[in-house]
Amino acid sequence: MEARWVSKWLSVPRLPRAWLIGAFAACAVYAAGVALFTGNPLHRFWGIAAACAYLAAAFVAMMWKSRAGVDLALVAIICGAVLVPLVWLAWHGQSQPEVTVVARSAKTLIHQGTPYQSPKVLAATTDPNAYNPYLPLMALFGLPQALAGQSPLVDPRVWFGLVFLVVFAIALKAGGAKDYLRWSVLVTASPVIAFELAVGGTDVPMVAFMCLGFAFLWRYRGEIAAGLALGVASSMKATAWPALAVAFALLYTRDGSRAAWRFTATAVAVMIVCVGPFLITKPGSLIKNTVLFPLGLASVKSQADSPLLGHVIADTGHLGHSVVVALLILSGVGIAVSLVIRPPKDVPAAIIRLVIGLSLMFVLAPSTRFGYFIYPIALVLFMVVTMAGRRVAGEQSPASPPDVAVVASG
Fold first, then answer.
1. Residue 47: phi, psi to the nearest 5?
2. 295 φ, ψ to 5°?
């Protein structure tokens, strides 16, 4: 049973054709549902373009039962679900507010030396988009537009997508996955990534670097590289910080305290380089934008308002908001305690623990969006595909040097 499961997930062409056609059809239904029921014209445009692309891919996969048919289906979805809506919306300057926030943060960084508006400016505004809830490294995606002006090629979403595709492919390859290029295209063109990428996309590059960090943790003595990757993700947005705690627990249990602290020192060093200068020179701006505003403690409320449990409770008033913040803290403490009492002993266990923690955080956060669930979904897809490739390759545990098995058998 396990061998059959592994062979199905080894590469995209090896997936049962009925599964592949069914997946494309399900994606088409989802995209069509977005187009029919959304009140946002950007979402509607993506839904129409993507639904056509997924239906075309399902038809191609049904008619051409060969590797070439699969490749043609992948071309159809990457063009119709990603490139067409992204380029069209970028050409017409249409995007969700977070893209404008990133672009503006880059201009502010160039002209004022910080990607954040000052507390004085924020105190005088009622516009939630004046706040920048992202950590400083995210501003890099807005630099091409800030330097070159308005153009589809320098839209931050283009760079979000390129970084995700390249880094996610590297993560799959580094982790031991097979057929990593096709898997990267399939995941990028799936509604999980394509929808957010076409209209917004700020979370897309972060999840790729999180996958890369755990890919390196599958390797022997990969803690330094993992620290670099997760340090980069953690310098874009605080959403990546729970991954640092989970990775530390894994390394401490599996490889010992020295490896765990090497990882931590590397990740913290990256964050000091990327975030430290702004924390030292403009601490008030950084804290008000990246801490108080996401927690709903600023004078203006975030527009992230998907009807999940945390937002629904917080919307009842001051008491409800306090309850949600308390629940959020308790859930974080609960995950932390679980890492101490029963730490993960391998990468899949660590990813599952992280997925649980992030899901709780997104459900309970006072300002949240359904789109945040790209983190747990993408991490699980990365884990499944990588595990299949590693089991076929029969790779040894990363906790042991490659020559241990040879010496023991000799």
1. -60, -45
2. -85, 0
